[in-house]
Amino acid sequence: MKKYILLSSVMMLALGLTSCSSDELKSQSVISVIKNEPNEFDMWLEENFRNPYNIDFKYRYEEIESDLNYYTVPATYDESIKMAHLVKYLCVEAYNEVAGIEFTRAQFPKMFFLIGEWEYRNNGSFILGTAEGGRKILLSGMTYLNPILAGLPEYNDFVFEFGTNVAENLNHYYIKTIHHEFTHILNQTKDYPTAFRQITPGSYVSDSQFSEPYSSNYLKRGFISAYAQTNTAEDFAEMVSEYITHTKEWWEAQMKAADTTWSEDPNQTQTGRVLIEQKLDAVKDYMFTTWNIDLDVLRDCILRRQVDVTSGKIDLTDLTTNATK
After folding, report:
1. Residue 70: per-residue pLDDT
2. pLDDT at residue 114 above 70?
């Protein structure tokens, strides 16, 4: 079973493919896997992911880990190093700090797999990441990590959602995805409450979430994002990931925008704000009673670490290990 998080987009990338004969393509992968001797990055991953958490962080392209329904390319070496640091500092170690290392070791996904390009769909959206079987997270779009970290508003005709805002773009394209997918993994281990499913039971729109009128009215309808309108599981994961990666000021701005009813639904008797706040109460209660995690404490931790990253306090290229000190 795969859980997807999608991003609405009106642009597609032009993919230049080298022509070759059908004989050359017969049962062959476009990209071959080359077995390499462990390098400096591999040794760093061993010390920071595999040994303490039993997490396999894969950055070399492997066809078996890819979805062959999409054109995919390998992640670059330099951007893979930076993403490994981001996952470690903003996600793994944040849960260590708030819930304890034993929680992280037991619950965090056991594999990350990176690819260079987004996985584009034919409905104008593309896939930021997936969680498979509760244990693997795929992260796409590594090609765009360096431009985002540099605060560039666009790269190769791709315009980033938040322009030069590094923190928002990091969250939107990568970090929020990890927290979203990790929430799915927690829910697969211990299900979220039935009460959450009853707050907006008839308002989910499946694959129409990025189409009008839903794409611009999700807050009024009682959803924290357009993608949250897909189904209750995605709604729950979006509530967690959006809440813990944004400031109190951002959240209050969303609530003010949601403080009305959606006029096109005569059966909606409560404002979007009331509905979202009911969902937040259910999410907070689940995370605390089930996993002993205070969502506000987790948010404060993640936001503090986020500032460390965007201020340059954290060296995202450091591959120092105990063996090299």
Report:
1. 61
2. yes
